[in-house]
């Protein structure tokens, strides 16, 4: 069935605006109670009446394609509705219900209006249902987008959180790596380490990979690059936290870490770094005992 | 050989490589793999999943838990519809890379596995199968 060239929707919405709004609000409140979500009444009412206004405006253009400029305001409204619902913890279904719940109220009006004209009723219902489906799906899409933005922000947050460079001693830096080392993170790790070397004038940097579960060739390559870069800046670089299974895997992979100093744990790496810097740790208690 | 369970995972982004590794590790733990065998298998999966993504332009990994003669094992099949490998022998040489990598991923994965098979047709894609037994 083809959509009619001219739809009676704008007139019907105009004629019954108050009734439609009241019915729709009632419907949404009932649904909200069933879905156990709380809607802010004032906000909902203004969103609904704005929706009706824009729906009338949009249908006047006789263009059912909601991606066109005629529907720009409607898209904005739905974006803000789904954004606020996403932030309030609504599910995608509960969010799209905003649009879909309008069908009942509208269809009741259409039926009354076209009681004597079955063809027109079918056509109008078809047009309306198509349109509302599209608007509802758009709401879901926007909902998803909002959630994806949140995830992306969290990912970036994690990225920055997880690359602290700490100073263990004057001139000795440590970079404890935890989790997955992908290209984006390694870049950040390398940057912050090199930056810290400049700031502190450190002579030794220890990269600790105790918290890295899998060391494959890409991770190894990243480590090699970071060590080389640190050396170019005049700092010696050790890698610590090489567990037995990691050592064996690296051998099987055939990665050559030959000229990099590696240690099984951070303690040994720190001891070596202190030794190289001419530092010794003395147990004063024992010294006193020996003197006594 | 008896199939205990299997799962197919898409490999179309960096996140999928992480997911492939996590699933592989969990399954290896479930089959009571020793830590060293877990690590070897997971590392091989990581290498091959990355090859599927980068050189094969994406594909999928089929992970299978199998049992043969009372020994349990994991098998992973990586399949892509990428450009394929014109010279497999060369691709299996240490240090050979068409990208900007160490060139150790494919030969490394072979050394980390008990069984290794690679089938590639230029222009059609590549399938790499590895297995590791408890």
What do these coordinates show?
The complex is a heterodimer of chains A (about 290) and B (about 130). With about 290 residues, chain A is an alpha/beta fold. Chain A folds into two domains: about 10-155, Orthogonal Bundle (Globin-like); about 165-280, STAS domain (Transcription Regulator spoIIAA). Chain A is about 65% helix and about 10% strand. Chain A is built from twelve helices and five strands. Chain A has helices at about 10-15, 15-35, 40-60, 70-85, 90-100, 100-115, 120-160, 185-200, 215-230, 245-255, 265-275, 285-290; strands at about 165-170, 170-180, 205-210, 235-240, 260-265. The longest helix of chain A is centred in the middle third of the chain and has 44 residues, at about 120-160. Chain B contains four helices and five strands, in the order βααββααββ. The two termini of chain B are about 15 Å apart. By secondary structure, chain B is an alpha+beta fold. The longest helix of chain B is centred in the N-terminal third of the chain and has 20 residues, at about 35-55. Chain B has a five-stranded antiparallel β-sheet, with helices on one face. Chain B has one domain (about 1-135): Histidine kinase-like ATPase, C-terminal domain (Heat Shock Protein 90), CATH 3.30.565.10. In chain B, helix 2 runs antiparallel to helix 4. In chain B, a hairpin with a 3-residue loop joins strand 4 (about 115-120) and strand 5 (about 125-135). The interface between A and B is medium-sized, with 20 and 23 residues.
């Amino acid at each position: 069935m083809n959509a009619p060239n001219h739809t009676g929707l704008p007139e019907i919405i105009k004629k019954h605006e108050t009734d439609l709004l009241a019915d729709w609000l009632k419907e949404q409140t009932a649904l909200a109670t069933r879905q156990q979500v709380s809607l802010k009444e004032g906000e909902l009412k203004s969103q609904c009446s704005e929706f009706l206004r824009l729906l009338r405006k949009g249908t006047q253009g006789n263009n059912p394609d909601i991606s066109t400029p005629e529907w720009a305001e409607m898209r904005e409204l739905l974006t803000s509705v789904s954004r606020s619902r996403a932030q309030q913890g609504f599910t995608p279904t509960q969010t799209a219900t905003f649009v879909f719940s309008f069908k009942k109220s509208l269809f009741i009006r259409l039926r009354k209006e076209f009681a004597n004209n079955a063809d027109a009723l079918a056509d109008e219902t078809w047009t309306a249902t198509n349109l509302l489906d599209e608007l509802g799906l758009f709401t879901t899409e926007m909902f998803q987008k909002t959630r994806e933005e949140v995830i992306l922000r969290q990912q970036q947050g994690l990225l920055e959180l997880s690359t602290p460079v700490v100073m263990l001693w004057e001139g000795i830096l440590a970079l404890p790596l935890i989790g997955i080392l992908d290209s984006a993170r390694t870049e950040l790790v390398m940057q912050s380490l090199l930056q810290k070397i400049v700031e502190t004038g450190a002579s030794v940097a220890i990269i600790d990979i105790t918290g890295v579960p899998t060391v494959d060739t890409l991770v190894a390559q990243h480590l090699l690059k970071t060590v080389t870069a640190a050396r170019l800046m005049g700092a010696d670089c050790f890698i610590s936290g090489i567990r037995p299974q990691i050592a064996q895997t690296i051998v099987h992979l055939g990665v050559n870490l030959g000229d990099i100093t590696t240690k099984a744990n951070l303690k040994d790496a720190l001891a070596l770094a202190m030794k190289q810097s001419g530092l010794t740790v003395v147990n004063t208690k024992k010294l006193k005992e020996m003197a006594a | 050989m008896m199939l205990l369970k299997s799962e197919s995972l898409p490999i179309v982004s960096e996140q999928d490589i992480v997911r492939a590794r996590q699933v592989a590790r969990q399954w290896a733990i479930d089959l009571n793999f020793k830590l060293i065998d877990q690590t070897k298998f997971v590392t091989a999966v990581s290498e091959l999943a990355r090859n599927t993504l980068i050189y094969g332009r994406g594909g999928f990994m089929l992970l299978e838990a199998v049992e043969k003669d009372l020994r349990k094992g994991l098998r992973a099949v990586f399949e892509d519809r990428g450009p394929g490998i014109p010279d497999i022998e060369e691709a299996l040489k240490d240090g050979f890379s068409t990208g900007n990598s160490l060139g150790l991923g494919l030969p490394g994965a072979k050394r980390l596995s008990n069984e290794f098979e690679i089938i590639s047709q230029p222009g059609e894609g590549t399938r790499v199968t590895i297995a590791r037994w408890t």
